[in-house]
Write a structure and sequence with these properties.
mainly alpha, Serine Threonine Protein Phosphatase 5, Tetratricopeptide repeat, 2 domains, 9 helices, 83% helix
Length: 245
């Protein structure tokens, strides 16, 4: 808006210069006075052009900074999701080995709790699509996509992660009330999830954002006690220290 005002002002100055020259010529004004006024207007116009250029540079720098922050956010999401998938695969491998051992020793025909390979591929494609929306900062669309994923694949190995990203998307958009509900849903429905400690941390943060100070501090203190010497515990301690009078 400010840049547009400068453009209009510049145009107005040019028209004003022409009108002054025309007025002076018709009224018999001195050439010297007319020249001085013209010079003053030109100098002012140049100053406005210089300030306009500076504003454009500032806007460009801010846009570059915003783009860099968005790239960094996407990289962080990618890294976190990659580590989550690695943990889930390791957990799945261990569970599969235990199931095979029980089946071999007891002769039971155990039924797998996860989808078959075809369903698992479809689930992963649906999860990746929802996660792609999240990386594009399309938080509303990603929430809808992850929610649809959970409805269709409630027992998928990606389900806990999907629930976490629903909560995180609401937290990022500062809908702390909904974020709190969604993080609590993860801790209740997926207590064995690798994201359980992170969800507890965000529950504490959300409570503090909602001015539930006592509850938030208690949540963070419980987290520190339950997961000492972890990154989430360090973050919880830092937040508690920040809130100290």
């Amino acid at each position: 808006m400010r840049i547009g005002n400068f453009i209009l002002l510049r145009t107005g100055l040019a028209l004003g210069t022409a009108l002054i020259l025309s007025s002076c010529a018709s009224s018999g004004g001195s050439t010297s006075d007319t020249g001085n006024r013209t010079v003053d207007l030109l100098v002012e116009t140049e100053d406005l052009q210089a300030e306009l250029k500076q504003l454009r540079n500032q806007v460009e720098m801010q846009q570059n900074t915003l783009d860099a922050l968005k790239r960094r956010q996407r990289e962080l999401y990618d890294d976190l999701d990659r580590r989550l998938r690695q943990r889930e695969r390791l957990a799945g491998t261990t569970a599969g080995q235990q199931a095979r051992f029980v089946s071999q020793t007891q002769g039971n025909d155990l039924r797998s709790a996860t989808e078959d390979s075809g369903d698992d591929d479809q689930a992963q494609q649906a999860y990746d699509a929802a996660f792609g929306l999240l990386k594009q900062s399309r938080y509303g669309d990603s929430i809808k996509s992850f929610s649809a994923f959970l409805e269709r694949y409630p027992h998928s190995r990606f389900a806990p992660n999907a629930q976490y990203w629903i909560a995180e998307a609401n937290y990022v958009t500062r809908d702390f009330e909904t974020a709190l509900v969604e993080f609590q849903k993860l801790t209740k429905q997926y207590p064995d999830s690798q994201k359980y400690p992170d969800a507890l941390l965000k529950i504490g943060y959300s409570q503090l954002e909602l001015d539930k100070t006592e509850e938030g501090h208690q949540t963070l203190e419980n987290l520190i006690e339950q997961y000492p010497d972890t990154q989430v515990a360090i973050s919880a301690k830092r937040r508690l220290k920040k809130d100290m009078p």
